[in-house]
Amino acid sequence: MSYENSIRVLVVDDEDAQLQLLAEMVAALGFAVETASDGQEAMEAQAKSPADVIVTDLMMPRMDGFGLLRGLQAGGDTTPTIVLTGFGNIEKAISIVHDLKAFWFLEKPVQPNILRVLLERAATQKRLIDETSLLQRQLSFQGVLGDLVGGSPVMRQVYSLISQVAPTSASVLITGESGTGKELVARAVHRISTRAGGPFIAINCAALPESLIESELFGHEKGAFTGAVERHAGCFEQAHNGTVFLDEIGDMPIGTQAKLLRVLEEGNVRRLGGKTELAVQVRVIAATNRAPEQAIIEKHLREDLYYRLNVFHIALPPLRDRKEDIPAICDALLMNLNRKHDCRVGGLHPEVLARFQNSSWPGNVRQLRNVLERCVIVAGEGLILSRHLPQEAHLGNMAAISRPAAGVESEDSIQFRVGPKMQQLEEAYIVLVLKHTKNNRTRAAEILGVSLRTLHNRLKDVARRTKTVSAC
Fold first, then answer.
1. Which of 131, 247, 260, 419 falls between 20 and 30 A from 41, CA-CA?
2. pTM (2 d.p.)
């Protein structure tokens, strides 16, 4: 793709013949061209898919060139605009350039060679404006640490805790709902620690079957079990002089937790089937989306392991408790998603942003990212509009779930009066989501923002408690 073909020019004129002539001229110069018949149509086109340069006539019905420039200025649109003017209106054109911040003016009839120079210079200015805007947005993310974004008081407290613990060798326990960014916190701790030059090895304890988790953690020797055709170094060996991140520690089998505790206390690891122990220098960061105290009561987490890991505790807030961070989070996510999918989405329509901020986001930042990724792919460029949102997202309606209430239920919401315990609320919401997905557990896990294994474990807990209550 040539330099010119990557530049999109919006030509605005109410005379069909003149509009066609200008469009053909711009296209012949190698630029991508779009057209509008007056200022109002141009404003609507800019809202949907902003051009890089605008070329507009002054005198038009409905909304003339003056109205177009004022509208762009009022909306904060900095797209360079070249104004076409007739003979004898040079003073007026200069005034427009000065007062309404037009890029330049061009006298009719338009000369192709002059138009090309102006278009190229205007496009260069547009790139500089975009780069400056990007830099300003990055600088405005003063609430940023690694990939964590947000300047709310609760997030600033999280950044402070990370900065305090990172230089030490203390174990860290991160708690928070699924999708809040616990691994991002772990990576931030590693990145600014003295171990930053070493490896960061992450393992999801809920994603591995019980028969494999010990091999992944501690490694194995050749022939240690059926299928062990060669020696394998476990996570602790791989992370020597670095950091091991154990996600969903509450889903690790109890027997494996006992072996993990010994490794943490002694600093040595023995491969499965091995006869000797290896000394490892590893910092351990663990995370769980369960309340640790409740997990201990329910025998999902060993109390001694909890105290060994919980030397330093960082609690991550759910997205619904820091909604003021949503605009900044969306900006950061859009930059990454545009790069990933080669799109040119410039932001969210105010109506969409309002819906985002009025939603409870049970899946937290992970759910927000998934919704945005779908929107970026559908929109491709311009602003994300309401029609780009997935229908199943129920944005703006999820607030009903965040104010739950026992006994009053509709198809997509529950209401609770003050009284039920958090465990009961969680169980009721899981049942609601399963009902909504017609018992499709994979889809339910996506909505809940948890792994399929975690959902299965929650359902087992519900069934076991129900059975216990019935027996009583």
1. 131
2. 0.59
CATH number for the domain formed by residue range(s) 320-393:
1.10.8.60
Is 131 a residue whose pLDDT tops 50? yes
Instruction: Return the closest-CA partner of residue 348 out of 364, 326, 367.
Output: 326
Cβ neighbours of residue 10 closer than 8 Å, sequence gap 6 or more: 33, 34, 35, 36, 42, 45, 46, 51, 53, 54, 55
Is the model more confident about 249 or about 423?
249
Domain 403-471 has CATH 3.40.50.2300: no
Contact between 169 and 283 (Cβ < 8 Å): yes
Q: Are 415 and 426 in contact (CB under 8 A)?
A: no
Contact 212, 224 (CB under 8 A): no
The amino acid at residue 470 is: S
The span from the CA of 241 to the CA of 219, in Å, is 17
In order, the DSSP letters of 301-338 are S-HHHHHHHTTEEEEPPPGGG-GGGHHHHHHHHHHHHH
Handedness of CA 309, 313, 314, 316 (dihedral sign): positive
Structural domain spans, the chain: 4-139, 146-317, 320-393, 403-471
pLDDT at res. 393? 57
64: Cβ–Cβ under 8 A, 6 or more apart, which residues?
38, 39, 58
Separation in Å, CA 365 to CA 86, 202, 330, 372: 54, 19, 10, 10
Instruction: Say which DSSP state 437 is in.
Output: T
Q: Are 317 and 324 in contact (CB under 8 A)?
A: no
Q: What does the pLDDT read at residue 185? A: 95
Q: Which CATH superfamily is domain 4-139 in?
A: Response regulator (3.40.50.2300)
Asked whether 281 and 240 are in contact (CB, 8 A), the reply is yes
Topology of the domain covering 146-317: Rossmann fold (3.40.50)
Q: Which two tokens stand for residue 338?
A: 């545009």
Nearest Cα to Cα of residue 356 among 324, 382, 400: 324
Q: Are strands 282-288 and 148-149 parallel, antiparallel or unpaired?
A: unpaired
Residue 464 above 90 pLDDT? no
The answer to whether the 4-139 and 146-317 domains have the same CATH topology is yes
